[in-house]
Amino acid sequence: MRPQTRPNFPLLEVGDPAPDFRLPCDTGELFSLADRAGKKLVLFCFPRADTPGCTTEAQDFSRLLPAFGEAETCVAGVSADPVRKLARFRARRELSVTLLSDETHTVLSAYGAWGEKMLYGRRFEGVLRSTFLIGRSGQIARIWRNVRVPGHAQDVLQAAQALV
Question: What is the per-residue burial (b if ≥16 Cβ within 10 Å, else e) of 107-124?
Fold first, then answer.
């Protein structure tokens, strides 16, 4: 039996079908996995807009977005922040990646990116920095959990380039 992240959400593994979703993005439009059927997608889950690590991660993915495009791969970041905060984050940091809002944590939970964390001895629930590479078939091709930001976007790009 697989470990549980939250009730009814088993921890995803490589080869599993990616859970479908439909979330509002920082532009106010809706973004869904189904609309990207037949395309590769990088979904990076980040804890909070405008914090140092999250800013660096989003800037790294934005900087590499043309190379992801050449690899025929869409890139989107997901956090529990409201759309308005994500729009300010994108504008302030001049980001080019799409940012998705999951205030209900439904998608983050389905992907195993919402759970218990500890900071300065305090336990709380929050976004677990994770990245998912979804192949053209809609299956999970790679998973990165407990992500360390430096060099991460480049590693994900290399995996996307290698994925047929």
Answer: bbbbbbbbbeeeeeeeee
Question: For the domain that residue 40 is a member of, what is the CATH number?
Answer: 3.40.30.10
Residue with tokens 């990616």: 18
* pTM across the whole model: 0.91
> Residue 102 falls within a domain, yes or no?
yes
Q: Residue 134 pairs with which residues in a beta bridge? A: 41, 140
The model's pLDDT over 103-121, given as tens digits with 9 standing for 90+, comes to 999 999 999 999 988 888 8
According to DSSP H, which parts of the chain are helical?
Answer: 52-63, 65-70, 83-93, 106-110, 152-162
54 is catalytic: yes
Q: Which residue range is the domain that position 74 belongs to?
A: 34-162
The verdict on residue 15 lying in a domain is: no
Query: Domains in the chain: how many in total?
Result: 1
Instruction: List 6's β-bridge partners, or say none.
Output: 9
Distances from the Cα of 84 to the Cαs of 25, 46, 90, 103, 127, in angstroms? 9, 16, 10, 12, 18
The residue annotated as part of the active site, out of 25, 45, 54, 74, is: 54
